[in-house]
Structures are given as C-alpha cells and as structure tokens.
C-alpha cells in the first residue's frame, strides 16, 4: 500500500489555484503560494518495548503577496479560507516597509536532484516498521544483555510539495525520509549510563543502522568512571561528529547568513577574504547533494539551488542570501551588491522564506586521520561524544559552555577511561581557526528540514577547556 | 500561590469543530473493533506573530491551523492517527485499532499492558477569557508596542541591532472519548520578546528578553515595555566589558529566571512519570525519600493564571491542579498522565499535554517553581560568600534525566567577592547532578514568583513558566 495518495500533488495544485485565483481577484501584483502535505508512520520505544505506533498526515498552504516592494504573508489549512488569508496578507503588505528592488523571482530552468525519494519508503507498511522496531530492540540486547532501549523510535515520512507564483514558477515534487533514534541505557550495580544516537536518510535504511551498536558502545564505554584532577584545564579535545554537530549548528551555521554578516551580527562580519578557519579547511553549503536533507532543485522562493564554497582553504569567500534579504540589505545600504544564492529556506508552510543554510560540509585538504591516529596526535586530552546545552551557546561571539557525560580521558595517546561529568567551554570560532585535524569519517548529524551537517571527527588542539565535575 | 486568578471562568457555549454525532459513532465503532478506549482530540489555533528588525516591520504572520488526533487503546497498547483532514477520522478507526493490536502483540512476556487511571467523565465547556481578547488586537497596536521596546533598546551607538517579536495564540480544544467525555476548552497566550546585539570594536555580544504569559493584550499592556528594552540595552552594553567567567566548583546565586530553569531541568524533567516508567529518571523509586535540603519545596501548577505554562484542562480532559513535587526536601509526587498514574497506582494529576492537535499527550510540566525561603534579599544571600558567582537571566538548559546531570546557561553574571557583587562576567553556565545539588541549595529569598516565559522540548515543544525566589547553591560547577 502506497503511503502517499496518487493524486497528492494534484490536490495541492488545486488548492494553490484556488488561492491564486483569490490573489488575482484582489488585484495582487505578485504572489507566491506554497503547499505541502506530509504523510508518515512512526513508532515509539520505551523501556525496551514498542509503546505506541502512529500514522497520519498534515499539511497546509502559505501565501506571500508583494505589492510595490511591500510584502505580507498568511498561512491556512483549508483553501476555502483563501479570501480571508489573501486579504490579511495584503493588509499586512500595506503596513510593511517598501523594499526597493524587491520582486519575486522569475521562473528559471533547473535540473532535478537524485536520491530525494525512495519508493521502498512509500511502500513500507506499518507492520514492516514495527518489525524494524523489533529488530532494533533485539539487536541491542544481543550486543549487551544489560543494554535496554529506554527511549527513541523509528519513523518514515513522505511529503508532497508544490510552489506556484505569479512569475511563472510552478514546481512540485515528493520527498521521503526515514529516521531512527535510540536511547540505550545500561543500569547495573547502582550505576546507570546511557547514550542517544540517531540516523536519518532519504532512502530506506535496511538492516540495523550503525547508530544502534554505537549507542550500546557509548553506554558501555562511559561506565566505571575514573577520577581526574578536579581543576579546569585548557586541553586538546577530540569531538566526534555527534559531539561537535550541535555546537556547529548553533554557532557556525548562522555565521554564514548574509544578513547577519552585513549587520555585523556574525563573528565573521567584515572578514571576507580573510582567514577564518584553519588553512586546510573548506566549508561548503550544498543544496544539491544527492539525497541531502536540504536538497531541492529550487529554494524556498523558487530560485535554482547551488553548492556554494563559503570558506576555501580557510579563507572566507562567500555569504548566502535569499532574494528578499539581498534586496532589503542592498536597499538599506548595508551592502552595495547582493543577490539570491538560492538559499531561501522555509520551516513549513507556516513561515515565509528566510535565508538558511543547506547541507553543510567541512572538508580538509590534508590527509584525513583515523580516530586512532587522532588520539595518538592528541597524546593528552579528552574525547567528547555528546554535549548538553549547545543551544545555550552564543552564536554571535562563538563562546560556549556546555556539559558532557560522554567523555573519555586520553593519556599518552591511549584512552584511560571515562569521566562521570565535565564542563566543556571555549570559543568555537577561535578553536576552529588553527590547530585543527579532521578524521576520515563523515557522518550526517543534526538533521533538520533546513539541512544537516556532514562532519568528521575533529581534533581541536587549542581554544578548548575541560572542567571535570 | 504567587499569581492568583483574576480572570472570570466562562462556561458559555462556543462554536464546535467536531461533528458530535459522527465522531461519537466513530468512537463507538472503535469499541466494536475491540478497543477498550478511544478518544478524538481536536485543537484549532488562531495565531499571530510579528517581527520588527531595527524598527522596521520584518514580517507579520496571521495563521489558522487545525488538527486532530485519534488515540485508541486496544489489548493494552496504543495506536494513534493524527491529521489535518478532520472529516476523514472515522475512516481511520479500523486501521488504528489494528495498529494498537499489532503493538500489543509485541509486548514482552511479563510486561504490563497499558491501562488508564480513572478520572471524572464530564460534558462541559471551560473558557479562560482574557480581559482583552488578543484576537482583536490590530497590527498597528502590536507595532506600536514593539516600537516602544525598540526605541529604548536601541538608544546607544554601540547597539548594532535590535530585533523585537510579538506572538499570540488562541487555543480551542475539544475532546471526545468512549467513556463519554465531551469537553471543550479555550485560552490564550501572548508574548513579546527581543534580542539586542552590541559591539564596541571587539566581539559582538547579545542579550535576549521576554515577557508574556497566559492571557491577552492586557498582559502586554501591563508590561513596562520601555523598561524591558532599556534593561536589555544596559545588559548588552555591560556584557561588552564583561570578563570570562572563572571555571570550577563555586558558590552560586541564581536570579529568578535561572532558579526557574534550574528547577525545570534538574528536578522537573526527572519527575515526569513517563520517563520514570521508561527507566530514564534518576528519581525512579525515590518517592517519599529525602532528596533535597529541608528548605526546598517545589510545585508545578497549571492553574497559576498568567503563567506561560497555564492551562485549564489537561489534554486527557482532567481539570488542572497544583502538584507539590518536593515538600521540605522530600519527593512527594511525580507529574502524571492517566497511563503513568495507572502504572504507578497513584492519582492522575493532569500533567498530560500535547504540542497541538497533531500530537498525542505526554507528561509535561506547566508552571514550575521553588517556593520562597527565609532570606530577605540577595545581599543577605551573598554576605557569607568569599568568592562565588551571581548568575542572572536564562539562555536555556538541558538535562540527562537518566544520569541525573543537567546544564543551564546564564545571560549575564557577576563575581561575588567578600560578600559584594563586583565584576560583570559573560557566558556563564552551570552544571551538576540533580541528587547532589538539591541538597546544596542552602538559601532562598522570601519572594517567589514566575520569571520569564519559556519553551520546553521533549520531542514536542510546549510553553512553560518557571521561577522561584533568588536561590543560593553552596557549590556548583561553573564554566
């Protein structure tokens, strides 16, 4: 049974046409309508068993109107409310400031991106999904009989999306996703350790994804903590992809947005063509990655997407823009010239497009090292696998102070044991600007509907501090 | 109670979205298919958000959203279907019963089937009317208020950016169950927020502000918006000159905002009975045990009108009530919904909340507070501290409920030296272990009240209120 109705796109187009007709009836000069309808199945795991299974669908419409450089937005679930929604968007446009030079993008040719939909997901039944849940629970117990999946779940989704505009954009498509997360705990002799791991893909993940044994591994590795000197220490830290991803999302990703750059809200403001990363590092913002979570042939405004080199060999080369943000900041004189980089993102139909990162990759021109080699290079320091409180980091300054319970002490190039808890602090912009070594794993972390991070192990040799509890 | 209800509770009839006859027939059908319990919960939301950037309207977004969730218990397991296509719900009954049964068939030997604690079955309406219905507030009024914040926040050359936001929502919920429950309730929330960014040649710094709660326009009108912007400006400018915080185990004084976040993260989450039942709480098996200092009493209270986490009826149809989680250091209650109350054999206490109509209810906090103590003010708390930190304003927090470790971060802080509050500090965070640090709370001021509104994520995001008095912790890990 197909998870998504055969006529899902047609139904959305019909709704868009109803709203478009209202725009024309109300004399709107330029309009843009997006629609999405998602369908999904999921299951929750608690206390070593599947506790709940669910399914369903949700969606809606968003309409952006533009009158003489002034724009308004409204969203709705039922197209029968189009007259009211368009009228509200129009009245908001009248109250909005005029942005000189802002008009909706014209239709431009683009090419599709592979790997965005997997028929196998569309055809996966609820029973198939439950069986995958069974397999995960069994696998964890088979790796370590003390280990239990105490939380998490599995989900699949399919989303039909449509965009139409007065400027001739008419785009539609279906994407799929498969996500899995497990919280594995080991409780024995009054000691409880746990680890959360997750995997996501646009394709069906068959078998047991690597994140499942990894969760057991870290719940095991962090048992029987050792004692170290209880003093703050500036020290090298090896962050696993899971450890660095949330800090990367909260600090690095916002810093490349054009508007933050020109408003001097980014640490990298006024540093164009200057070195901001270690000289062997390159940072890509890629919206055309095969099967990428941000990938689409067009961005949230209908502009064709690209892969942008933001930082090349350590030197800042580019910032990213949506059509509207580019026009606004040029009109306000914050920058002399800017145009869309195909980087408009939408959280959902409920929000207008804003500039956002896509799938972000951090690459090195140096030969990548294995984790063992990185540990050897580090000699003395710590390995951090996950942090709590990354959302409290300061995206403007890059300062952070977080907590970890998955931390290993390294001495003489070897892992000595785990700490129960420690604070990790520093400034990510400074730490990543020099003395950085990358591993050769490249995991997908921090998946969201506006893209994910593709990071490897990162060894920071400066700018980091550990504060053992 | 710190915030008392001043609002009339209105029981007048309202417009209904669910077709009672059709939906009750569908629920009956679920029983025919073998379900032991079924419910349909619908939520209709009327929302508005406005954002002002550097004094100019960035966007204003009015929205109407609706969703419903069908939840079916069969053979002791849940099947759920959520949709924006309300009229199609009756067509999903059979498949959702089958889904529940498929889950039940996988229940491990010896594992208890899910049951539900009994609650009163009511057919009524409850509407918490705002004094000034926020749906009637026009865009210009919202813009004028945000401009007031902007003007006072922007009043210095070193301020490089001010962003101000408005959000409000009117929430209408209907719940029908096979037990005969037919309840409808509604209420509103309103909030203003902002972020000030400052730079003075060096690195930029930022400071966030929020004000709001359950209620309508009157909540925002009652706020000194100019003062809110001024406070943010002064704080941001102070951060420009602030020094990096010392690291290590130090005495800590937390203001109301941070006290609230601390108690939310360190105690509130581990008290959620669904986590306890799943084996993911450090408070498992500790009901009735001493887990904190005698001076620590903690309540979670959704009836606290005006708090951002207030609601009249929980998402399983139970009237809300105050829960005392810790009384004089003794763990007295978990936060429950019907399933966990049945699991533990205790009274349900209206802790079931869903993010919206498209999500099923989880056990969640509402307005969570430490109650006041005996100290007069911060000066009295600080006078015995030779070297410590006074941390103010929240940048959020996080907890590992199973391990019992938590972290929260302050917006700004100060050194305490020889009992005096001295040098401003930046980017201070605090971490610790729940079962240790509750014993290390050794001073609370008398005046407890809710602080800034917040949001809590647990797979679903819900608004919450946190707060308390100014709190002193004997020793905390500061970084």
Largest sheet of chain A: 9 strands, mixed
Low-confidence stretches of chain B: 1-11
**Derived structural class of chain A:** alpha+beta
Overall domain count of chain A = 2
Shape, principal axes of CA atoms of chain A = globular
Q: How many beta-strand runs of chain B?
A: 24
Q: Quote the average pLDDT of chain B.
A: 94
Q: What can be said about the biggest beta sheet of chain B? A: 8 strands, mixed
What percent of residues of chain A are in strands? 35-45%
| Low-confidence spans of chain A | none
The total of helices of chain B stands at 10
Helical proportion of chain A? 10-25%
Describe this structure in words.
The complex is a heterodimer of chains A (469) and B (479). By secondary structure, chain A is of the alpha+beta class. Chain A folds into two domains: 8-221, PmbA/TldD fold; 233-468, no CATH class. Helices cover 23% and strands 36% of the residues of chain A. Chain A contains ten helices and 23 strands. Chain A has helices at residues 8-25, 82-95, 119-122, 126-143, 211-221, 241-255, 258-262, 323-331, 371-378, 428-431, and strands at 30-46, 49-67, 70-76, 147-165, 170-188, 191-201, 233-234, 237-239, 281-286, 307-312, 315-316, 344-345, 354-355, 359-364, 381-388, 399-411, 414-419, 422-427, 436-438, 443-445, 453-455, 458-460, 464-468. In chain A, strands 7, 8, 15, 16, 17, 18, 19, 22 and 23 form a nine-stranded mixed sheet that branches. A six-stranded antiparallel sheet of chain A has the order 3-2-1-4-5-6. A six-stranded mixed sheet of chain A has the order 11-10-9-14-21-20, covered by helices on one side. The longest helix of chain A has 18 residues, at 8-25. Chain B is an alpha+beta fold. Chain B has two domains: 9-240, PmbA/TldD fold, CATH 3.30.2290; 244-478, no CATH class. In chain B, strands 1, 2, 3, 4, 5, 6, 7 and 8 form an eight-stranded mixed sheet that branches. In chain B, strands 13-12-11-16-23-22 form a six-stranded mixed sheet. Chain B has a five-stranded mixed barrel with strand order 10-17-18-20-24. In chain B, helix 3 runs parallel beside helix 5 (225-240). The model of chain B is unreliable at 1-11 (pLDDT under 50). The chains are: A alpha+beta (469), B alpha+beta (479). At the A-B interface, strand 2, strand 3, helix 2, helix 4 and strand 4 of A face strand 3, strand 4, helix 2, helix 3 and strand 17 of B. Strand 2 (49-67) of chain A pairs parallel with strand 4 of chain B.
